[in-house]
Design goal:
Layout lengths: L19 H15 L4 H14 L4 E8 L2 E6 L6 H4 L10 H8 L4 E2 H7 L4 H12 L4 E8 L5 E8 L7 H25 L10 H11 L4 H8 L3 H15 L4 H10 L6
Helix pairs in contact: 1-2, 1-7, 2-7, 8-10, 8-11, 9-10, 10-11
Length: 257
């Protein structure tokens, strides 16, 4: 019987790689990720390969009803935890481009197309302050409007190397496919367990006409945490907006009218 290759079949370099090593590394990683049985295993396979390409962090983010949340990966970079919300707002150049194009891109590609506005330049400078000098994002737009993106960032990525660019596309695409598969399997239980208690609490107050700030005060949470709970509820219910999430949660009996 043929054995599924894993990244342990390769000597993964401690630093950035290029040239011929990249293709072998990317394809072995892709095969291993495709066979991963959990998100934890998936991340363990992805991390050494991403680091060999110069990336320090990787994740899958989801946008629902204008709210962003991390649904896979556990990036250690504090940017993803405490960055000022204005830099992830509608004028953030990375977010804008991801929303408007189905094509994957590197952060450095943005500035090549046109000059950045002062707000956009400030957003990129904020990333640089956290050691994010280059990044890659591949986005999938679903028919229901929910957007998921694989994000990879780091300070040592040579985006001018064609081999690094191709390898990044490969591992990001396979990571995204595997993460969606594993997340779908994790969300397979009956509707009664489809939402956590916090997600139900947030949707219940949304149904009462409360704003995110109101809900945060009521539940003793931060507004960003409330946004994340609502976004996660949208994802689990397979809807795009908070209004749709409330309607579906009510129909399934997950929240009281």
């Amino acid at each position: 019987m043929l054995r599924t290759p894993t990244t342990s079949d390769l000597a993964v370099p401690a630093g950035p790689v290029g040239g011929g090593d990249v293709a072998r590394l990317a394809f072995a990683a892709a095969a291993a990720m495709d066979a991963a049985q959990s998100l934890e295993e998936l991340d363990q396979i992805m991390r050494p390969v991403a680091e060999a390409l110069g990336y320090s962090d990787f994740l899958m983010a989801q946008e629902c009803d204008g709210n962003l949340s991390i649904i896979a990966g556990s990036p250690p970079n504090a940017f993803f935890r405490d960055v000022s919300p204005e830099y992830l707002g509608p004028e953030d150049p990375v977010r804008k481009r991801a929303q408007r194009t189905p094509d994957a891109f590197f952060y450095s590609d943005i500035a090549r197309g046109r000059p950045l506005t002062p707000v956009e330049a400030a957003a990129m400078a904020q990333r640089a302050a956290y050691g994010i000098l280059e990044g890659f994002i591949g986005t999938r737009h679903r028919q229901d409007g929910v957007q998921t993106s694989v994000v990879m960032v780091g300070a040592r990525v040579d985006a001018s190397d064609p081999a690094v660019r191709y390898a990044t596309h490969i591992i990001a695409e396979v990571y995204g496919i595997a993460a969606r598969r594993l997340l779908a399997a994790a969300q397979a239980p009956a509707p009664a367990s489809a939402l956590t208690q916090r997600q139900r609490d947030c949707l219940r107050w949304v149904s009462q006409g409360k704003s995110g700030a109101d809900i945060a005060e009521i539940l003793g949470l931060s507004p960003h945490t409330v946004q994340a709970y609502v976004a996660e509820a949208c994802a689990r219910l397979g809807v795009r907006t908070r209004v749709q999430a409330v309607a579906k949660a009510l129909a399934l009996g997950l929240i009281e009218p």
